[in-house]
Amino acid sequence: MTWDKIIIGAGLYGLYAAKACGERGERVLVLEWEEAPFKRATYINQARVHMGYHYPRSYATAIKSAHYFNRFVKDYDFCIHSEFEQVYATSDSFSWTNREQFTQFCEAAEIPCEELYPEKYFKKGLCDGAFATREYTYDAAILGQFFMDSLEKCSNVEIKYGVRIKEIVKQSDVYEIILENGDTVQTGFLLNATYGSMNQILNLAGFEPFKIKYELCEIILCKPLNKLLNVGITVMDGPFFSIMPFGKTGQHSLTAVTFTPHVSSFDSLPVFHCQQRSGGYCTPQQLGNCNDCPAKPESAWPYMSSMARKYLREDYGFAYTGSLFSMKPILKASEVDDSRPTVIRKVSEKPTFVSVLSGKINTVYDLDEVLKND
Amino acid sequence: MIETQMNSVEINDKEKNFVSAVIYVYNDEERIQEFLLKINSVLSKNFENYQIICVNDASDDKSFEVIRAVAKTITGTVINVIKMSFYQGVELSMNAGIDISIGDFVFEFDNMVMDYDLNLIMEVYYQSLTGFDIVNAAPKKCERKTSRLFYKVFNRYSHSPHPLRTENFRVLSRRAINRVHSMSKTIPYRKAVYANCGLKIDTIEYDNDLSCTKAYNKETKHQRKEMAADSLILFTNVAYKMSLWAAVFMMAATFVIGIYTLVSYVTDQVISGYTSMMLVLVFGFFGVFAIFAVVIKYLSMLIDLVFSKQKYTIESVETMSE
């Protein structure tokens, strides 16, 4: 069967592309390994709608985030939680950026930032600057439901779940995807929107992989207590932590730079020790869902909570409710300036094969350029 | 019935407190593996949660690789490494390690000379639980004469409630760390600041095994001398007293010379006094320069304390696992 576009991966990027093309009347097929959409990266992350504060060492990333922030918040306001105080702070020791530098950076990037008294939130002497900022969080479940509802209306869009791709073959003017159940689908435009499995798909198609490293990350969900209820806190820029509302779930997410990544892999296809213990569920050729994996790591809650408690005043309490695990690919080039560019790579044209890799939710608009039909 | 219940309850008498162990590493490739394994065995046996922070002070041997190899054999994200950008000495490096530690209690291991029994580590910890914010482990016999001399001078002139001595390792409570940091921005000599922090301190003495003392290399020796001079100036009044005495002595000398000059003038023996006059001038200037030397030392330290904002310079922080 031949489709106008085939998209691999039913995360935000995949479904955004499906919706955009589907509404133009194109026949779109989405292939998803999981049994439901939004099961991995789109759901398992801090749920931060980035305004750019995170990147004081990369103006380019900061300015781009700020630019897309307003558009995303306007387009998807139904899933945005904005009624909380988002505090950024610079740690007194070990920070790559100090109070003055952060203020200057916000001015240069033209993003709002109002200085606060650090000791309102933090124990004495631990943070040299604290800032009230404008940054929101999105609810992946609501966002996912929105995309499902919109796609339901497009009879020309189909999503297949539980798909196992066996082969991707380039023919003269189409890509042929052969599934393990024997089905074969064809398209003149293939979009690889798989994030963690980026290189695995490229590998199947025989293309050069992205230069990425992999981190198995843990996001802790916790119940905010007392004053933390309507406050999000991010201590930066270095080996610190962040605790902020997790969409509209009423829970907070807790992450720490040094403890969120559990294990890393520097291979082009992700190789981890835990894969051997997963009983075939996860391999370097096909990543399983870390969250459902029998070999998922033990929670780093003791470490992350101790770090947060070291900084936060007693009245900003929190209690453990659960952990989410996922695989995160990081471009090797971005370590020094900590930038998070969206990488879109077109490896062939007519038939077209495009891969998209982005670590942020609101840069999804970068896709528009690729999806144009000219 | 009762028996099955007993079985289902997991016996877990491990300490609930989170502890951090900060270890100073400088060209220790030979002893670090054994040391890390020993510390890890003690901590994993006794604590539910802990971290080990190795501060690698720009070692030029294979210390880092050895730590990495050891980290691979330990389950969990226990070992962290701070890489100092260049050699900065034990005090600044340990400060970096303590700043990044997240434990409720922090062990400081300034060196890897394990001339004590492993049980001492927990003994020191339990002692701190009885109400001491800082507990030191100190060897009974100290071999180094220079160390003994330093502490003697230091304690004589410092008026500190806790006399200092040679110590091998210690445990600090989070409260002690916070207190010390709110007292002074830069900490050039931890021991002296700890002794003056006003919290309860205790020292446990142990019979040390003299055979395993480490020989200091040249660089370390130089650093130690510098630090000894700095801490004597900062935390004791020995320099102040010396300069005061010099000033008083020279005032007296000048006074005597004045009388002598007067007498010479009256008795008209001006020419014969020329030699002694010159001697006095030379001596006087010598004294003035001596005082200047002290003043200059004071000033240079003030500059260090006030203007050098960066406490220490680190290159990277790394968490290691499996």
Automatic annotation (TrEMBL), chain A:
Protein name as annotated: FAD-dependent oxidoreductase
Species name: Acetobacterium tundrae
Biological classification of the source: Bacteria, Bacillati, Bacillota, Clostridia, Eubacteriales
Cited InterPro entries: FAD-dep_OxRdtase, FAD/NAD-bd_sf
Signal peptide: none
Domain FAD dependent oxidoreductase: 6-207
From TrEMBL, chain B:
Annotated source species: Acetobacterium tundrae
Lineage of the species this protein comes from: Bacteria, Bacillati, Bacillota, Clostridia, Eubacteriales
Keywords: Membrane, Transmembrane, Transmembrane helix
InterPro entries membership: Glyco_trans_2-like (IPR001173), Glycosyltransferase_2 (IPR050256), Nucleotide-diphossugar_trans (IPR029044)
Pfam family, one: Glycos_transf_2
Organism superkingdom: Bacteria
Name of the protein described by the UniProt record: Glycosyltransferase
PANTHER family registered for this protein in UniProt: GLYCOSYLTRANSFERASE CSBB-RELATED (PTHR48090:SF8), UNDECAPRENYL-PHOSPHATE 4-DEOXY-4-FORMAMIDO-L-ARABINOSE TRANSFERASE-RELATED (PTHR48090)
TM spans (from-to): 244-266, 278-299
Occurrences of domain Glycosyltransferase 2-like (ranges): 20-110
